[in-house]
Amino acid sequence: MLTLTDITKSYRTSEIETRALDAVSLEVAEGEFLAVMGPSGCGKSTLLNVIGLLDRPTQGSYLLSGTEVAGLSAAGMARLRGAHIAFVFQNFNLIDDLTVAENIEVSLLYRHGEAAPKDRIAEVLDKVGMAHRAGHRPQQLSGGQQQRVAIARALAGKPSLILADEPTGNLDSANGEQVIELLQQVVNAGTTVIMVTHSHRDAAAAQRIVEMLDGRIVGETRL
Amino acid sequence: MSGGISLWGRIRHFATAYVRNLYATRLLSAIAIAGLAVGLAGALMLALVARDALGFNGFVPDRERIYLGLSVLSGPGMAPVVNDTSNSRAAGLIQANLPDVEAVGRLSPAEASLRHNGETIRAKIYWADPEIFDILRLPVVAGRPKQALNSPDGLVMTQSESVRHFGRANALGAVIDLDGTPMVLRAVIADLPAGMTDLDRGIFASGKSAKSSFGASDAPGQFTISARTYMRLRRGASPAAAERRLAPLIDGMLPDFMRSGYAMRLVPIGALALHPGLHAGVRERLEVGSLVAAFILFIAVSNYVNLSTALSVRRWREIGVRAACGATRGRIAQQFLAEAVVTVLIAALLGAALVELALPSLNALFQTQARFDYVTRPMLLLWLVAGGIAVGLAAGAYPAFVLSGLSPAALLRDRGVGMTRRPVVADVLVTLQFAILIGLMVALAVVYQQRRFAMTEALRLDVDQLLVVDAPCPASFRQEVEKLPGVRGTSCIDRGLLDPPNFIFARIGSQRIPTDLISILPSGFSLLGIAPVAGSLSLLPPDGEQSPRRMVVNETAVRRFGLGSASAAIGKLVPMSSDPSDAGVPIVAVVPDFSLQSVDTMIKPTIYFDQPHSQGGPGLVLIKLTGRDIPEALAAIDRLWRQTGQQQPIQRKFLSDHVEELYRNLERNSWIFGLFSGVAALLSATGIAGMAIATAERRTKEIGIRKALGARTDQVLMLLLGRMSRPVLWANLIAWPCAWWMMRNWLNGFAYRVPLHLWLFPAAALVALAITLCSAGLLAWNVARRRPIEALRYE
Fold first, then answer.
1. Dihedral of the CA atoms B734, B739, B741, B743 (nearest 10)?
2. What is the pLDDT of residue B795?
3. Hey, are the CB atoms on B412 and A95 less than 8 Å from each other?
4. Are B325 and A106 in contact, with CB atoms under 8 Å apart?
């Protein structure tokens, strides 16, 4: 699905250079469920941003479905993002002014091919058990419900890769479990999922765990 | 990119996002939209007024080749006097001698009694040459206007005049009695658009009629300026060259004394509305108005830019999500640009409604007849929409550029990263906004001071309770009025007090000095509050003398005639005509300069003499009231007017009203400045309040931290206010020199003016600062006193 080779990401302010990713190499197979773990500030989120084409690596090669994307233009990155990748965030990132259904519609706006968007929205809401809340605003939902909507949004565009950044970080354990279950269902349907997490319990749901420290991959466990 | 969602579906989605955001930020959005509506309304109204002025006579074919001959009278030390009529015989000379002129024709304005079906109507008409319709090819409804005027009894009317006199729009062949001569309506033309042409009447009577005023003015030896002379030049011909060839021909007709003081100038009929000699102050008002309207629009647009950039904080998450879902920078920019355009179009709609309400008042102010006629001229709507889109794109460009450029990764991780500082552009816009406000306030103060000066000190007259009655000093009326209890005194003066007076070129040595002549009874000076600075008025007979043997002069005359000091001038002889054999009459008194003409013209040397007024001729009776029981006094004066056998109805007015009228130009300028400064202040205040709300929101976290670390409410308040008032202080650096330069130039246009007081500048700055502190202070106070935990929890 994707291959990272010697990916480096540095941030430079006037005096200090911070290396968030230091020669990271990683291969993820199609349909794999990968968990990325490590202490705060070790570069997990930066790695996710680079994989999700939200950020550009300073150095290195990134092959997505066999295509080199490290040197793509911003517009090219946005198009690939729209076509293949979806995100689930710790803070849900639902748009307050839009209803649940309209939030999901956003992920269909910038992509080709969905012939009946209304049906698709209903389908994914049904899948996460939120069909009865289609007309609600995010503030009217609990944290767990909001995250389920966020997963429905990620699923709507039928992406081949879902990137989840601490998806259970703001949830209680019962809601967290539901979210992990949903992600497992997604993987079972053939979608690749990369999840950043602090929780060993959540990570245990994945097929492989990658440990990071100071911008480097320092360990790998297959489950 | 064509997506899976239909175009309509996408429009619906973005419209929903836009409307919900607008609703969520309704107070600040309302501030921004209302400001834009006012700014756009101002710009639109000025554009409508300017359209009429610049498109003057635009409905006349070949407008750019058609010229009106103006008379310009000038002399050393006098402001040129421009008249829109010229000598009646000039047309013949032009026809015979100027090959560059294709056609020439005249209109002579007159009043006539028109009698039809036993009803008489007094109407304004033109006596017209047939050629006039060759030059001014006005839209014809029926008949052939040129041929119509070829017969001495021919008459051409506009449709509405035809309706007024004959009851129908096309009354060809109808006969009407014009000053006792039957005339036949032989052609009808379309109505002339009001305010768009110099032609102010719709009846054209044949100049070949025996009654025509051309007959008298064409007589040799006469030099009167009474005809409007129109001409069309050949294509490519130069009006300046035609003017040069015309000059010696006109000189040949002039009496000796006028030879250096008269010129005929050709002015394109499209430029008549803004000609400074014909319509004083119109161009200035239009320029000032356009500048101020541009300022207001700038303030409104910069308010919008600032508020929408600041308000976008709440949309950072949305932008991040859209970017994560595949939206390119261009598509995010498009969304915000489209929102800006829609917002401005909403504001334009409100602005258009404002124009409907305010245009009549603006027309009164500018003396224009601008119409918002989008029904009859749909192009206007198209322009309005195009203008709205252009303003929307300009206003939306910066926020769209900034927002689409934010890093989606940072926006999605936590709110607030990427734009924690207020953008420099916002500071620049607020600074410029306040510079404009300070400048407008200085301008308003200067215009107001100059107006007060002009109406009080520069006048040097006591016009309080002074009534003027239009009459050639009827002795019986004067005597009776003098006895009334509410009357302090009466006197007589000629119309030169109010209208441009008669003038001569006084022969002083080898010089010919233009000098005003005003006839006034000695008592007139004291009624006007004028006391001589040298000599005495007591030597003059109180009721005048048959032929003047003594004169009073003003101080300017003493100076210009080279008579030394005022006291040295007493007894000197000054001629009262241009006649070389005139030995002159002695000066018995010198009075201070005073004038009831406008302050933008210098006071000329003036000779006052007293002649008997009982012989008739135009004149004024001055009546000074005591100021008690004014309505009773006025009623008594009106009664005496009838009782002493005066035939015409009394025409009277207070001199103070005349002064008000005289300074209406200044008055209008102060209105423009006052009105627009008020609007600018309001917009700036609301803009600053909006910015304060946005700043407070953006700095909530910082305030929380400061308070958690021990800062007191007043310290936080000072921090916020200090930050908000900084642009106002910077604004002075721009405003002071610009306002000083502009107002100094403006004041230099007046012969008598107030000094440019420097204290006005810091005063205006203080007002601007007060506006900022008042509008931002309350909000800042609210934020500053919040408990720190609320602020920190926010994140």
1. 180
2. 38
3. no
4. yes
